[in-house]
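Class prep. Write one:
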Amino acid sequence: MAQAETFSLPEIISDEISALVKAGFYSSKSDVAKDALRCLFEHKPQLKITAAVELYNSGEASLGRAAEIAEMSTSDFKEALAERGPRRVIKSTSERVKRGTAIIRKSRR
C-alpha cells in the first residue's frame, strides 16, 4: 500500500471539509478527499490515463496494471502509449536474444 501523503489546503477549504464531516455527509476528512478525487477522475478521464502512463513509464506499474488504472483494455492502453510517444520496454537476457535470433535464422532457411 502506498505511503500516506500530507498536503496543505487553504483554511477555508479545510473548514468546509471539517463542516461536511461534522454534518455527517462523510465519516472522515480522508473520505472527503477520496470522493473529491473520484469525482475529478470521473469528470476528467484523461487524468487517469496520464497517471497510468506515468506509472508505467517509471516502472511502478506493469502494462496490465497501468491499463487497469486507466480503466482500459490492455490493447487500448497500448494504443494510448503509442499516441503519447513512450516506448514499451521489453526486458530480456542476452541469452534469450541469441536463442531468438537463432530461431529466426533457422526459419528463414
